[in-house]
Design goal:
- The complex is a heterodimer.
- Chain A has a single domain, classed as Rossmann fold (3-Layer(aba) Sandwich), CATH 3.40.50.300.
- Helix content of chain A is about 35%, strand content about 25%.
- Chain A is built from 7 helices and 10 strands.
- Chain B has 29 helices and 30 strands.
- In chain B, strands 21, 22, 23, 24, 25, 26, 27, 28, 29 and 30 form a 10-stranded mixed β-sheet that branches. A 6-stranded mixed β-barrel of chain B has the order 3-4-8-5-7-6. A 6-stranded mixed beta barrel of chain B has the order 13-14-18-15-17-16.
- In chain B, helix 2 packs antiparallel against helix 11 and helix 21 crosses helix 28.
- Classes of the chains: A alpha/beta, B alpha+beta.
- Chains A and B meet through helix 2, strand 6 and helix 3 of A and helix 1, helix 13, helix 14 and helix 16 of B.
Chain lengths: ~230, ~1050
Amino acid sequence: MIEAHQLCKSYETPGETIRVLQDLDLTLADGETASIVGPSGSGKSTLLNLLGALDRPTSGSIAIGGQDISTLTTEQAAAFRNHQLGFVFQQHHLLPQLTVLENVLVPRLAGDWQESAASTESRARDLLQQVGLGERLDHLPWQLSGGEKLRTAVARALVNQPKLILADEPTGSLDPASTDTVADLLLQLNREQGVTLLVVTHNAALASRMSKTFELRNGRLSPRITAH
Amino acid sequence: MTARTFILRGLRHYRGAYLGVLLGSALGAMVLLGALFSGDSVKSTLRQIAEERTGRTTLVLAGGENFFRAALSDGIPDTAPILQLRGQVDTPSGRSTGQVNLFGVTPDFWSFSSGDTTPAPLDKEAWAINRELARSLDLKTGDTLVIRLGKPGLVSRDAPLSGEPEELVTIRGKVATIRDDDAMGRFGLEATQLPSPAIFLPLNRLATSIERPGAANLLLFGGDLTVADATTAIRSSTQLADYGLSLQEIPLSNATEIRSDRIFLPPVIEGKLRQLLPAARPLVTYLANTIASKGKETPYSMVTGADPAAVSFLPDDLAPDEIVLNSWEAEDLGAGPGDKVTLSYYVLGSGNRLDEDSSTFTVRDIVPLEGAAADKLWMPDFPGIAEADNSSDWTPGLPLDLTRIRDKDETYWDDHRGTPKAFIPYAAAEKLWSNRWGSATALRFPAGEGNLEQRILDVLEPADAGLLLRDLGAESRAAAASPVDIAGLFLSMSFFLILAAVALTAMLFRFNVEQRNHESGLLAALGIPAGKILRWRLLEGAIVVTIGSILGALLAFAYTRGLLLFLESIWNRGGERLFRFHAAPASVVGGILGFIFLMMVTIWFVTRRQAKRAASLRLESGTEEVIRPGKSRARWLAPAAALAGLAAILSAKAIGPQGAFFLAGFSFLVAGLALFKARGVSKLTGELTPARLARLNIVRRPTRSLVVVGCLAAGLFLVVSVTAFQKHGGDEWKERSSSAGGFAFWIETTTPVHRGAADDSTADLFKLGDQRQELGEILPFRVGTGDDASCFNLNSVTRPRLLATDTAALEKRGSFTVKAAAPGIEANWSALREGPNMRAFIDETTLLWVLKKKLGDTIDYTDEQGSTFPVEIAGTLDGSVFQGSFVVDEQRFLERYPSTGGYQLFLADAPGDLEATRALLQRSLTDLGATVTPTAERLAAFHSVENTYISIFNVLGGLGVILGAAGLGLVTARNLAERNAEFAQLQRLGIAPRVIRSIVFRETRRLLFWALGIGLVAALVSILPALPKGDLITTLSWIASLALMFLAIAAACAWLAYRKATPLATS
């Protein structure tokens, strides 16, 4: 699913060039789950942005599902994210003006979906039912708890039936019990829908529930052996 | 879930944030549309007034002082004759007003109304008046009126032998009806938005009162006649009387004469008739003051100049220096053939003065006083002479010493009337007595010419007699169609307010976008293209701005009424509304769309960069904060712009004062803002103190800081600099070089005043007698054709009124200052007497703003005979009492308008108490229907117009400054709200709220002082070179108070924002 080779990302500052990622390689098969851990500032979010086509590498290549995304134009990258990826963020980023159901349907706003609106909405309802929010479809974000917001964000990440979910500290703001619930949910989706799951996290417990764990240090990934 | 739902939900959710955008848009649209609606209202009012003023009239035949038969209209369908005169109107209650239009009309006149065509029930003593006269004299139906008017002469009262001047006629009547504006109440030929007082009375009543029964001087045409068609129609109906001509049989000479009721045959007519009748010979009979020979003299005798070959009793070879006396005269002088005889007579000198001149002739022959030599018909009907019973009753309008008349002269008059006592060749007489009205008093030709009248009529054109056909409909439509550009004026005056509203609204919008950066980032992460996100944001903005603009359009209806009310204060109509509100659909739609476009372009400009930023960055932070030390272009921009400003000031002469002022002001503003930016990013290193932290905070969001400082500085610059141009003064009128030329009074009379022989500037023109000494020099002006082009007239004036005077007298006196002259022309009054064209000086304001011409340009006028001639703009006078008029040389003027009789405008000195002299003049000049205005008051009136515009600008500019101050408050509030977490952190670090407050205050204070400094310096440097020294203290006081007001408003806004935005204020 993911094949990143010799990935480099650096930023120019007035004084120096900061190299965040250096010759990074990452390979992940379809349906696999993986976590990336590392100290703050090690480049975890940068890597996730590159894999999510939100940013471009300075050098190297990235292929997702066999498609080279490092050369995509802005428009192509947006279309790629819209159709192939699901994002889950620490801050959930639910839109306060939209209901729970509408928040899940936001990706459809890209406008080039082949599927009918009714089908997408039906799936969104199923997804929300699946994450336990079947009764809260018309609620606004401020009426939800932190865990419920995250579950809504997860449902939103799945509404386009992605092959890959990128999660950036998805449980960063949750208590341990809620963290377990979210982890269960993500893994359940992985099992039931065959979605590849890559999680960036500081949370060792969450990381340990993934089939692979990588540590990002000095701009490079090194695998950690995880016991299941 | 569709994009539409998404946008609507966004609008609803962020309605609080969008409220500011909505209000800002409403304000901007209101101001923009208000300016457009004001223009529409003025335009529409002028158009309506033009329609009311002219009614159905398309063409008009205007004779001025040349009358024609009212019956001329009988043969031409859809016409109405009018006798238009001017007079003074008094009421029994003691109220009076001058410059009243007196319209002698027939029932046909009312059919020209664009509204009520019912004829007014007029009779000899029942008249109609218009609303303006009713208003000014508080008249109602049944009230009594007394009209006093000057009786027009047969010939210009200036002409020799034109009769006694200043003959006043008084007629009395009652107000039968008051005609509304749309029922011909506003009828008039002048293109002005102000109604003139008018009385409508039966044509014959007015005509008989001036002893011209059946006379008219205007003929209105309805329908769609072209000028050519109308000319043909007129020519087919004219009679000799319409040209002022008559045929006189001279039986004793078996001849016929063509005479003019204007005494002298107009040269154009004489030329055409001599071509038509080759046998016709001109002759002139003139009054000799004295015929003298060998110590003896005969007073006041007629002498005829005739072609000797055509007069049977004169020797064919009578030489130019020879004279033939009749036997009575030869006996009186005791002169015979070979003796020298001297004739003394008056001729018209410069400045219209009558000079006595003389010529000596040799007696060639003596003819007996019998037959043709004794024919009384040699003398035309000179007014004041022909009808006199005795010589001693003569009133020819010449300064005669009638005591010189002897008994024998009376006897001669009784027996022979004006039979000439001497004959000279016409060629000699023509040289002696030709004047601007003509040379010959008759054309004489052998009797027996067939079909003579028709043949004469066939060769004459109405214009030959000064009857000019004007396309009044087209003229009035043109004047109303492109009036003073009120919309442009208000737009320019509102420019800054609109700019401030747009900038502020765009800033508020950007705040909203920034507030939703996380949302944008999320959408981007979910695969919504950045362009689409920007489009949604712009669509939300467009919806809010559209609603705001529509709201603004509704508010503009009330705002426009306020603007028009302010504008109307210029004319001081006692609360009467002058302008009718009108909003053209094109202005409503175009204004709203234009404003939306302007707003959307600005919003796009300020948000486009946000949308381009990487979605990842947006997800991580709310607003962008930029500090770019040491790389600012501002470093070189500041000195470059300052240099450009200085260059603009130095080249003020070349690019004009207005251009120099704006260019310099703009350059200094840019220089100041560049300096602000450069200073902001310099010295950012060093010890960390509250002051340095404040500076660092300012450059955290450089665009916000720059917008606020720029907005405030530009507003302050405009208000301060425009205020500095407020006109004061008029007090310096005593200075001869001043705008008043050292004259105390501007006097306009309804009845023309005629200058007697030998009258100079010390003459008693107003017949003040012993009280003449209360006035010093009096300089009379002839008032010619053209419209008032002063700032009081909103119509488009292409030909300003001509004021003709003795420019040599002005030059000698050293009055007024010629500010600039056209290339190759000397900046001196003498320049008006030179050159091939008629030259004029005009007030600089009129030239620049009304005529929009430059020095050296020419404007075409039509002379008395209908010929077009150019008037060259030779120079400008600085802010003079002549605003709205061309000042030309009298002699050059009279060459084109020889019939213009008398003077209707006077500038007068007053050595004593002004108020007392004014009262004396108003009392003494009542009969002339005079208005007496101190020149200082006239100048102040002009200044008040400019000051009203400046006041409007100040109110609008002041609103702009308040808006800028509100912007400062918003930025302060926004900055503080965004930094609440930062302040909390500082407090957690043990920094006292007092210190944090001081940092915040320093930030705001810094912005405020930069704005104040930039605005003030830019304004002062730009205006100082143009400031009159006398006004410096007043102006600087104004500026100081404005600066204080500015500081107070801006500081109050910032303080309110601070109180609202942060808990620091109460901690």
